[in-house]
Amino acid sequence: MIGLVLVSHSRLIADGLCQLADQMAGGGVKIAPAGGLTDDPYTLGTDAALILEAIESVWSEDGVLLLVDMGSAVMSAEMALEFLPDEQRNRCLISNAPLVEGAIVAALHAGMGNRLHDVNAAAEDALNARKVERVPENVKDKTCG
Amino acid sequence: MAQEITLGQLRRWLILYADRIIAEEEQLTRLDAAIGDADHGVNMRRGLEKVRERLLDEETQYADVGAFFRSIAMTLISAVGGAAGPLYGTFFLRAATSPHNGERVDLPQFTRMLRFGLDGLQQRGKAHINDKTMVDTIQPAVEAMEAALASGQSLAVALAAAKQAARLGMEHTIEIRANKGRASYLGDRSIGHQDPGATSAYFLFETAVVALSTPVPKE
Amino acid sequence: MDRANTGVSPTPTEGNEHSATVTVKDPQGLHLRTSKDVVRVASQYQAEITAQNLSRSSIQVDVKSILQLMQLQARQGHVLLLQAAGPDAADALNALCVLF
Questions:
Q1: What is the CATH number of domain C3-97?
Q2: Per residue in B147-165, pLDDT tens?
Q3: Which of A19, A22, A23, A24 to mutate to test the interface with C (most CBs of C within 10 A)?
Q4: pLDDT tens digit sequence for C7-53
Q5: DSSP letters along chain A, please?
Q6: Which domains are seen in chain B, by residue range?
Q7: Which residue among B78, B86, B182 sits closest to A75, beta carbon to beta carbon?
């Protein structure tokens, strides 16, 4: 079963999302948060060393999917991967999925035993998921009136 | 004058650099507020305070120059927080992988270290010259050192040339448009503002002149 | 378990295609946790299974995708049309009906 690492600038987001993702995974999937900085947990930022620790804590031969928020999270995640030995790095993947939706989908699919690239593909589908159907302005007016 | 840089000098360099960054926090914040998210000053100050703390701790010992740079890198990676963390972290980490003579480096080795650091930085940030980033300061500085080395100049001259090139590179970022990071969202509106990363990078070369071309009294 | 929905037997439409309607009974609607179970169960079948929220005239979504299920915006009392096609379509619908 693959492992998941949730990278956010915010420790609170990463930890909270971890809780949500755990519920989706139904146990059995190792999910680690990597939010904020090692020494200043509630300072916003990302920390390659913390991400590396998270990867190691969920590592298995099946691989690790990293979900990241944005900006330096990507760079720090890339840097963390560079610290890994080749054979581990080759089994890690940074997802393009949006963090929250991606973590939910990835946790669910990882829990179903899907493989790394399949889990990532499902998570990246979140890029296309709409949340609300926009009602055209004139129709909305009529409904409200 | 000595043509080698000692571990003690490198230590002094990074302490001076930390002092400079801490003193310039407001300027870096102001520059970043104009084209970024106004966190470069506070991020760099937080990171360099940690670096300074470790360097001033008499207990901290470094096996060699590589270990010294690696330690700087790891502190920055874990304490800076913004994009500057992995960028400066990569710079020092790659520099650490370049050959050196244990507790000292000569000019060719030091120049090569900076080149390694620059290459790593460019890979990490995927930035090129004229993208309005720290590369605009560091690349000309490294090239100036390489030119000085090729023409047989002394360490002091090479460092002075690097500082001069770094300053021109930093100032040139005022005239160009950002192609990387948050500032790139501004397009042409980024023109007219000096890049904060190029500015914090300049201080590296500015402080290097004093720290690396004069001996450390205690040694 | 939802008594009303367990009573719904999948209606064969054409060959391997079956359909069923279910009513969402949960006061919180079709929320994330229930949807997770739907995806888990649906994924055990080969059949292609879609759902449509008839109470909202929504688009058809793939029930093996949690994000698509969330797009149904199904509240308590909404009626969903499940359609399955494949060798195990009937079994899939039987298994799914109890979840809503």
A1: 3.30.1340.10
A2: 999 999 999 999 999 999 9
A3: A24
A4: 455 677 667 899 999 999 999 999 999 999 999 999 999 999 999 99
A5: --EEEEEES-HHHHHHHHHHHHHHHTSSS-EEEEES-SS-TTSS---HHHHHHHHHHH--TT-EEEEE-STHHHHHHHHHHHHS-HHHHTTEEE--S-HHHHHHHHHHHHHTT--HHHHHHHHHGGGG--SSPPPPHHHHHHHH-
A6: 4-213 (1.25.40.340)
A7: B86
